[in-house]
Write a structure and sequence with these properties.
Elements: H1 2-7, E1 12-16, H2 24-35, E2 38-41, H3 42-51, H4 57-65, H5 72-85, E3 90-94, H6 100-110, E4 117-121, H7 124-132, H8 143-166, E5 170-174, H9 179-205
Parallel strand pairs: 1-3, 1-4, 2-3, 4-5
This protein binds adenosine-5'-triphosphate (ATP), ligand LLZGTKA7 and magnesium ion.
Subcellular location: Cytoplasm; Nucleus
GO biological process, one term: pyrimidine nucleotide biosynthetic process
Subunit structure: Monomer.
């Protein structure tokens, strides 16, 4: 009976929806190393798609330059392919869903519900300072695009946080603090989630 339960189980995923420059990319290596998740950044997948010379490349590049949200079908196709190509069953999906339409489309295409939603809470002032100092050559790290990204984040992405918050799925971290302190908070959340999961699994043995 346990085998049947495991084979029908969807991959464990969690969404990481937070403001631009709140520190997701910075924390992901530690999470991958300590907790065994595969990190999938929707933005990184889109940037790789531009580099690969795909037919959607120019459209994606223009949307990113304007801080706009790329159509769901494009992003979901990339995420779905990355999930399917990977042997892991635990995914940390960074920077997605960006809006309610992304969320509903991902749910209906993959049937995957997030285990929980990680939310890095950071002031706009701090995020702006971090983005302007990032120096990774990103075409959207200039003050005009940054302001557009903040607007899109407030208007379209925060409602996704509110949606999951109403379902009790959001785990919020104060990301304004130094990198090490943010990771301590991340560690506490993932350790608790791991213990909760171990508890649920043990019910398979002692139904
Ligand atoms: N806790 C922190 N304190 C100070 N600086 C930080 C902190 N976390 C990250 N940074 C710096 O802020 C910049 C943005 O961080 P990062 O790329 O991790 O953000 P992000 O959330 O992935 O952004 P985006 O949404 O644009 O991809 C980087 O230069 C990084 O070194
Ligand atoms: O699901 C997504 C994720 C990203 N985008 C576009 O990419 C940029 C950069 O994203 P980061 O998460 O900061 O790397 C974002 O501003 C969007 O233009 C997207 O459309 N959909
Ligand atoms: Mg990032």
């Amino acid at each position: 009976q346990m085998e049947e339960h495991q084979s029908t189980r969807s991959p464990l995923s969690l969404f990481w929806v937070s403001g631009p420059g709140s520190g997701k990319g910075t924390q992901c290596a530690n999470i991958v190393e300590h907790f065994g998740y595969t990190h999938l950044s929707a933005g990184d997948l889109l940037r790789a798609e531009i580099k690969s010379g795909s037919e959607n490349g120019t459209m994606i590049q223009n949307m990113i330059k304007e801080g706009k949200i790329v159509p769901s079908e494009v992003t979901i196709k990339l995420l779905k392919r990355a999930i399917e190509e990977n042997g892991n069953d635990k995914f940390l999906i960074d920077g997605f869903p960006r809006n309610e339409e992304n969320r509903a489309a991902f749910e209906s295409v993959t049937g995957v519900q997030p285990e929980f939603v990680l939310f890095f809470d950071c002031s706009e002032e701090e995020m702006e300072k971090r983005l302007l100092g990032r120096n990774q050559g990103r075409e959207d790290d200039n003050i005009e695009t940054i302001r557009k990204r903040f607007k899109v984040y407030m208007e379209s992405s925060l409602p996704v946080i509110e949606y999951y918050s109403a379902k009790g799925k959001v785990k919020k971290i104060d990301a304004t603090r130094p990198v090490g302190e943010v990771f301590e908070a991340v560690k506490a959340i993932f350790t608790k989630a791991w213990l909760d999961e171990a508890c649920v699994s043990s019910l398979d043995f002692f139904p």
